[in-house]
Amino acid sequence: MLERVVDSVRGIVEDVLDEARRTAEADEGRLDVVADIAAPIPLRVICDMMGVPAEDRAQVLAASNVILSGGDPELIEDQDEPLTALFEAGIALAGIMELLAAERLERPTDDLTTALVTTEVDGERLTHQEIASFFILLLVAGNETTRNAISQGILALSEHPGERARWMADPSIDRTAVEEVVRWTSPITWMRRTATQDGELNGHRFTAGDKFLLFYAAANRDPELFADPHVFDLTRDPNPHVGFGGHGPHFCLGAHLARREIAVAFRQLFEQLPDLEVAGEPARLRSSFVNGLKRLPARLAGVR
């Protein structure tokens, strides 16, 4: 399923960037990188993969924003009841899933939702709760993280014009550039894990059941692993970042798709909107968990 979606990414990116140009042309060249570029690309990709109808996609975006808001007061209005907002967002996504799952059972298609509701493994199918949880995870994780990598990557390129010019001129560095964008932006700041056995790590003893906070942004700037870790270098290679999580069963399921989206997004940006310029300070998400941007004002220099 991922491979089929990967083939459609270029068309989606081209459509989104065409619409972004029209938005800018209608407003004296102004646009918002997050709303007009970074958010629509992964949203369309993941919703196409899941088979979410167009009329439900705005609700998917809004619910995803709330679930990964980190309690940002701009996204959760009632600061006295933040958990209520999270539950309501989850219920909204589960509701979309219930309708979609019922429809796919009656009229199967080639989307991932059909595969989830119809596939049997060892004679068993996923339960309703498992399908709803998986659906919410894919919609939220597949949308928010890639959006922030793209928007933060555009910001990083504006802050490092030499690197931007180098990438624009040389498509052969797409692979290493994407990895450096993920390392530099670290869209997820941390994750918690639980020790399953006693042991020792870097001279520190721990026991089964102890909780670990894995700070990805810190690991991605570890001077023992990265030469000049605070330098944005689009040809950095090797680049053993943990932007997609650590190795093993928790490694990001959508890493291949995310890399494709980021690579195509920037290559098409260079070709379709080469005059894109960041035109103001970013509005950062007030979250300890997600390194995100809510807004990033920009303009097309060639549009008046």
From TrEMBL:
<dbReference type="InterPro" id="IPR001128">
    <property type="entry name" value="Cyt_P450"/>
</dbReference>
<dbReference type="InterPro" id="IPR002397">
    <property type="entry name" value="Cyt_P450_B"/>
</dbReference>
<dbReference type="Pfam" id="PF00067">
    <property type="entry name" value="p450"/>
</dbReference>
<protein>
    <submittedName>
        <fullName>Cytochrome P450</fullName>
    </submittedName>
</protein>
<dbReference type="InterPro" id="IPR036396">
    <property type="entry name" value="Cyt_P450_sf"/>
</dbReference>
<comment type="similarity">
    <text>Belongs to the cytochrome P450 family.</text>
</comment>
